[in-house]
Design a protein that fits this description.
Length: 325
């Protein structure tokens, strides 16, 4: 579980993220999901169906949905990691939602850190179990980063990690050198539609509970985070943050995942409550309806999705991940 990601960013953009308190109220629990090798990521909204309790129910629910305006199957690439100690709470910075941190009475986060991921201390490992009452429910690779592209659907979008575009010698086997160089996870991207019928994309995200011994993705109840804060800078295309509940439930939702807008920004800290996450308006009426609060109780992945017109190019840096406590 102790694995670390670092990306170097020369760049123009610095992401600031939010740090928060040390107390928790809700227990964390983990459950196995179906294997999560390919992720289709679309956006949809509405229609109320209870979240199924079994894989059989899930498969029944996922049989019908209208085709959304944006589809996105992607090739998921887990990134190599290492280990670290628990981070200190960073000093605060500005929050787009002006949500205060109970720990220090200031905005929840700042450039260079958050209470779940403070790059200078955590390297490439996000402390997703930090507020868990039972840490045993977290499996292998919990809190590790992954990269997804649109290549499996015919897109040709690319991402270049910080050390690559800075022409620094790097073996590509660990993101720690990247993170050390730019104090966060940074790089450049180029969006290329290729044969896609929708706008091209890349996604960067992390596994919340990791995987069980058979390699199946696990989910965790992280509702006691009360939301999430992300410190980031981004140019060239807008981004959303999405909550994934694993392949089966994502499919049942018609890939209309609960999401919030990150937009484009320089040195911004954005905090969101779980209730801020809504399924997009193009969701099929037959697709599963899931609120942000429900997704947080069975969360598999947090996804930062950069999507825009073909030919768009830009830079990004993620500098902190935190709770909204």
């Amino acid at each position: 579980m102790n694995q670390k990601l670092y990306m170097a960013c020369a760049g123009i953009f610095s992401l600031a993220m939010l740090a928060c308190s040390e107390s928790t109220n809700s227990p964390v629990s983990g459950t196995a999901e179906e294997p999560n090798v390919l992720t289709a990521e679309n956006d949809i909204s509405s229609s109320s169906i209870e979240i199924p309790a079994s894989s059989a129910e899930i498969r029944e629910l996922s049989s019908s949905s209208a085709e959304p305006p944006i589809l996105s199957s992607s090739s998921e690439i887990p990134l190599p990691t290492s280990s670290s100690s628990e981070p200190p709470i960073p000093e605060s910075s500005s929050s787009s939602h002006s949500i205060l941190c109970k720990t220090n009475g200031g905005p929840c986060g700042g450039p260079g850190g958050g209470d779940l991921w403070f790059p200078a201390y955590d390297y490439d490992l996000i402390q997703t179990d930090r507020y868990a009452e039972d840490k045993s429910v977290f499996g292998e690779k919990a809190g590790t980063w992954f990269l997804e592209t649109d290549s499996s659907d015919g897109g040709k979008s690319t991402i270049q990690w910080g050390l690559e575009y800075m022409d620094i010698d790097w073996d590509g086997q660990s993101l720690i050198p990247v993170i050390e160089e730019c104090d966060g996870l940074c790089g450049t991207f180029a969006l290329d539609k290729g044969d896609l019928s929708y706008d091209p994309f890349i996604t960067i995200g992390f596994y919340v509970a990791g995987f069980d011994s058979s390699g199946n993705p696990l989910s965790a109840d992280v509702s006691n985070w009360q939301g999430i804060c992300i410190a980031f800078s981004l140019s060239g295309a807008p981004a959303d943050v999405q909550l994934s509940m694993g392949d089966s439930l994502d499919e049942a939702m018609g890939y209309a995942l609960p999401e919030e807008v990150l937009g484009k920004s320089y040195g911004r800290s954005s905090c969101f409550e779980w209730s801020d996450f809504l399924q997009p308006t193009w969701k099929s009426k037959d697709a599963l309806t899931v609120s942000g609060e429900e997704a947080a109780r069975r969360l598999v992945k947090v996804i930062i999705r950069i999507q825009g017109k073909s030919g768009s190019k830009g830079e990004f840096i993620i500098q902190g991940i935190g709770t909204n406590i």
